[in-house]
Write a structure and sequence with these properties.
The complex is a heterodimer of chains A (288) and B (745). By secondary structure, chain A is α+β, with helices and mostly antiparallel strands. Chain A has helices spanning 9-18, 32-37, 74-78, 81-86, 88-95, 100-103, 108-113, 122-128, 224-230, 237-250, 261-283, and strands at 2-4, 23-26, 45-48, 58-60, 66-68, 131-136, 139-144, 149-151, 154-155, 162-168, 175-182, 193-202, 205-214, 221-222. The chains are: A alpha+beta (288), B alpha+beta (745).
């Protein structure tokens, strides 16, 4: 195995593009190193991104959004008051990953690129409308977060491409987001179902919404039918029931060691309702 | 709740720091993986990816060609001709003609580094012919099930049963049919429990060396190093006396570290590598796939009850699989399941069945939790149907001292009645419950155990004492034994050291199992101390020139026994010890026996929980353990055992299970997916230590390690019924199962 520590993304991209065997990018390492120890992945080239300037920074964009470096660990996200105030759902999703120790290393970008449909931080990013900045052999491009996962353990990134930052849009007024996951325990578990809701209000009426589901399909789903079920409503019981029905209808899960297909379909609806209520309360400025 | 006779104790019953505590919290304690030797190699094991497969060919050419690979072993490197359990152990340690479960060892390699050993293991090419497999116990004994090993059944198995049924038992007394006819309500139900793992935090680890002269040494994390010695020697065809085994500190065992897995492989690799030491440390995945989980069970229970709650007859028919080898604890499950009830008419039937799973090992009261789940669930259901209080029904039918147990022998002193009265008196029973909340109650039992025991102790020149025991300290036994020895000698707790010593230092000791360490090693340590006291009295008598019998031991000193013995000031232990070199040499004591006087232990648990009706998720709100300890030598470690048993039982009841895919491969091979409760899942578990002293132990000890895992399984199922009205008969009661039951209501 060859270990590389480039100091800019173009070099990292070039290293990956020129590599012939198994390549892995390393920032927090909470997936890569565990997979290496378990013998699941034995990289020929390991490209450490932590030496690239700026990868550990959270900066506000000109438009009022947030640019999050690829090596920012969960614990730093959770301590960032500005980010938490704007996107509490994104932060709470990331902060559910692993243990306190894992939070000290694990990153949003790593959670996304691991390609797990159950990744806790991804539904929140998708609901938020976050984009990723990709550096590749042909330059830099920007795509929506939901376009990155391609199935369990797979991404749409081409050879030589890597994410160089995640960018959250400006939050704006009267808006809130939330993420909930179902696990049978209280922590240290993988989502059986995850759901994020982001919405904006005008008075008590929802004017914008995005609903994302995790662990119910090969990739995290952006469910427009679920969003449509609550847009234009005050999140009354009928809207909540329609939301749950749309979320359950969109779910296309499998039965595995973590839960059954039927259970996941049902819980997708339950979590959508609960997450929407929290996002709604946050948009109203209430603590939830 | 101390009973009479212990008022004068100064140390027993107090809570000093454990002697091993500081080393453990500062990282100085040496566990299995912490041992290393000069020139040491690392071992890695090649494991079957198939549940059942014929091993056609093993080609190690590529592995052996790697620079730094020093030895490769397969079953061909083991002796042939073993029989009985020795053969079972050998076959489980290293597969022969067939791989019998996912994770079964088929080859092993030793190399100069861990990475190299792992790389070499990946290069060993094994050709398999995959065979049909069977996982579930009922499926394994059904017609047409794949035969795991023809001819494995013993003489107990009647004609006409599937060859996977390897042991059969039937016992009881009275006339159950007549008993059922007397009942006002007869109910019969089938229950299932899934296999679970002990989930000890420390994976198995050992360092071994064995030279060309056939002499071997091993440092290993184990509950019982004499067992490791005997079993490893048997598997390798060497004399046990040629092997010296030293136990390390142990990070949990719960029964799972009373047998061998990779230990003989490290010895065989060392021998083949010219005597260089070989270290093997299992990964978590290896631990879950290839050590000794529990049996799974399918159980029919039938009970007859009068409308005032008297049980007139009971019948249990249990089917248990303990992996691809005989040994599922179906006997223990049957012995324990009705143990709390005084029964005139009772009948038990048991089947020990093979399946393509790892060979089960002991797990905290093996069999008892399974049986309790079935029986205590049904008793609860019948109490509710008849409008009876479940605690009162247990009291009405409960066994007391001198009663004949459901499984035959007469009970000595037992404390079930006292336990039940303590439950009735506890405020939790009166606490209000909210919506979707329920309360469950159940009783559990474990025999406790004595076992071969050998203990030595020696008085130091400064008047302190060092005790050598052969039972590894898992749950605080060094602290408890030090308390008992210090109490007996009349010296401070801090003046007694207790050391767990290697196989060369004492006679044979059974492992720390069966809740026996504080009972058996404790009793032997007290006997050994009495021997040393006798010698110290003799030394004082010689100096005073009076009869040995005229000297007694009081408060850490020899003194004349009464005014007629002579007038001498007491001679302290420090004084006697300080000049023992001049008065006859070292003073020590020794005791070895299979101590009699084992005291059985009953416990009862009460759980309050809440069900999320939309998700089927269960939250434990409040939990109470009441158990008879006989006497709590160190109450903190008794409470720790009660709480630990409850926590493991809660895991078994709610989320822990071995999940297999359709190819018979274990799906959840890491703690992320093998869902042991985490700390934040559980409330502080309340404990009440009931003390009905065991007359068979100098301080009244019964043994407390195992009973506590038994009641949680049914108590939780009963509480879920109380909360949401559904009766769950198949563990674990995980959210998908409970939600499906709620929707089917």
């Amino acid at each position: 195995m060859r270990y590389h520590s480039p100091t800019d993304f173009a070099s990292a991209s070039a290293l990956a593009a020129g590599a012939s065997g198994v390549t892995r990018f390393l920032s927090g390492g909470t997936d890569v190193l565990v997979q290496m120890r378990a013998g699941m992945v034995l990289p020929d080239d390991l490209i450490d991104l932590k030496k690239i300037p700026g990868v550990s920074d959270i900066t506000q964009t000109a438009g009022g959004g947030w640019r999050i470096g690829v090596a920012v660990p969960g614990i730093v996200l959770g301590a960032h008051e500005g980010l938490k105030a704007d996107w509490p759902g994104v932060v709470e999703g990331m902060n559910l990953v692993g243990s306190t120790q894992v939070q000290g290393r694990a990153t949003l970008t790593g959670n996304l690129c691991n390609g797990s449909p159950a990744a806790d931080s991804v539904p929140g990013l998708v609901a938020a409308g976050a984009v990723v900045e990709i550096t590749g052999p042909t330059g830099v491009r920007t795509v929506a977060v939901e376009a990155i996962p391609a199935g369990p353990g797979k991404t749409t990134l081409a050879k030589g491409e890597l994410i160089s930052a995640i960018v959250l849009p400006a939050r704006g007024d009267n808006a809130g987001d939330a993420y909930l996951r179902f696990i049978p325990r209280t922590e240290m578990d993988i989502a059986v179902v995850g759901c994020a809701v982001s919405l904006r209000l005008s008075g008590d009426t929802i004017t914008e919404a995005r609903v994302a589901l995790g662990a119910v399909a090969p990739t995290v789903l952006l469910v427009s039918a679920a969003a449509d079920a609550i847009i234009g409503t005050t999140l009354d019981d009928a809207a909540l029931d329609a939301l749950a029905a749309a979320a359950s209808a969109a779910a296309n899960p499998i039965t595995d060691k973590r839960g059954t297909k039927e259970f996941r379909v049902e819980i997708a609806g339950v979590l959508a309702k609960r997450a929407a209520k929290i996002a709604f309360a946050r948009a109203k400025g209430e603590t939830a | 709740m101390a009973k009479d006779g212990f008022e004068t104790l100064k140390l027993v019953g107090t809570r000093p720091n454990r002697p091993d505590g500081l080393d453990k919290v500062t990282g100085r304690a040496r566990y299995g993986a912490d041992f290393s030797l000069p020139g040491m190699l690392w071992g890695a094991v090649v494991r079957s990816p198939h549940a059942h497969a014929r091993i056609v060919k093993i080609d190690a050419t590529k592995a052996e060609a790697l620079d730094g690979v020093k030895a490769v072993i397969t079953r061909a490197d083991f002796p042939t001709g073993l029989t009985g359990e020795d053969w079972n152990l050998q076959e489980n340690t290293m597969a022969g003609e067939k791989a019998l479960y996912d994770g079964h060892a088929v080859a092993a390699v030793a190399a100069t580094s861990k990475l190299l050993a792992e790389q070499a293991a990946r290069l060993i090419e094994v050709t398999y012919e995959v065979l049909p497999h069977v996982i579930d116990v009922d499926a394994a004994m059904a017609e047409g099930a794949p035969v795991i090993r023809a001819g494995a059944a013993d003489a107990t198995v009647p004609e006409g049963l599937h060859p996977n049924v390897v042991r059969y038992m039937e016992f009881g007394r009275g006339d159950v049919d007549a008993g059922f006819a007397e009942a006002d309500l007869v109910m019969e139900r089938t229950y299932k429990t899934e296999a679970t793992h002990q989930g000890y935090i420390e994976p198995h680890a050992c360092v071994s060396k064995m030279g060309a002269d056939g002499k071997g040494e091993m440092w290993v994390c184990t509950q019982g190093h004499w067992y490791i010695r005997k079993m490893s020697a048997a598997v390798l065809g060497i004399e046990a006396s040629q092997l010296r085994v030293t136990p390390t500190e142990i990070g949990g065992g719960f029964g799972g570290k009373t047998t061998i897995f990779m230990e003989p492989l490290s010895l065989a690799l060392s021998k083949k590598a010219g005597g260089r030491p070989v270290k093997i440390v299992m990964s978590r995945s290896e631990v879950l796939r290839a050590t000794g989980p529990t049996a799974s069970a399918s159980m029919d229970v039938k009970i007859g009850m009068t409308k005032d709650g008297k049980i007139t007859a009971a019948r249990a028919e249990f089917r248990m699989q303990g992996g691809a080898f005989p040994g599922a604890p179906v006997d223990m499950a049957l012995y324990c399941c009705f143990a709390g009830y005084k029964l005139a008419n009772v009948h038990h039937v048991g089947y020990d069945v093979l399946a393509n799973r790892p060979k089960c090992a002991a797990y905290r009261a093996p069999g008892s939790p399974n049986g309790a789940f079935a029986v205590e669930s049904l008793v609860d259901e019948m109490c509710r149907k008849l409008g009876l209080d479940p605690v009162e029904v247990r009291l009405k039918n409960g066994v007391t001292t001198g009663d004949r147990a459901s499984y035959g022998p007469k009970f000595g002193s037992i404390g079930l009645t006292e336990v039940l009265e303590a439950v009735k008196a506890h405020p939790q029973l009166q606490a209000p419950l909210g919506e979707n909340q329920g309360r469950g109650f159940a009783v559990g039992y474990w025999f406790n155990h004595n076992g071969e025991t050998s203990v030595s102790m020696a008085i130091g020149e400064d008047g302190t004492a060092q005790v050598s025991v052969g039972t590894p300290d898992i749950g605080g036994s060094r602290a408890s034994i030090a308390l008992m020895v210090a109490e007996t000698l009349g010296i401070p707790y801090e003046d007694v050291g207790v050391n767990v010593v290697e196989t060369g230092a004492l006679g044979v000791n059974e492992p720390t199992h069966g809740s026996r360490a504080t009972f058996a090693s404790g009793k032997a340590a007290v006997e050994a101390t009495q021997a040393a006291i006798k010698e110290m009295c003799r030394r004082a008598a010689a100096e005073w020139d009076i009869d040995d019998e005229a000297v007694e031991w009081v408060n850490g000193a020899a003194q004349p026994a009464g005014p007629n013995a002579g007038k001498f000031p007491p001679m302290s232990i420090k004084e006697i010890a300080g000049k023992m070199g001049q008065t006859g040499g070292p003073i020590s004591g020794h005791h070895e026996s299979v101590p009699d006087g084992v005291g059985a232990s009953f416990g009862a648990h009460v759980v309050d929980l809440e069900v999320d009706p939309e998700t089927g998720r269960v939250t434990i709100l409040r939990y109470l353990v009441v158990q008879d300890a006989g006497r709590a030598i160190h109450p903190s470690y008794v409470e720790g055992q009660y709480q630990g048993g409850a926590a493991q039982g809660i895991g078994w009841a709610l989320n822990e299970e071995y999940v297999y895919d359709d190819k018979g491969r274990l799906s959840n091979t890491v703690f992320l997916d093998y869902r042991v409760p985490v700390a934040s899942d559980l409330p502080m578990i309340d404990t009440v230590i009931v003390e009905v002293p065991n007359p068979g132990h100098p301080f009244g000890v019964r043994g407390v390690g195992e009973t506590g895992i038994t009641p949680p399984l049914p108590a939780i199922a009963n509480a879920i019924h109380d909360a949401v009205g559904v009766r769950m008969t198949h563990l674990p009661i995980n959210p998908p199962k409970l939600l499906a039951a709620l929707k089917a209501r």
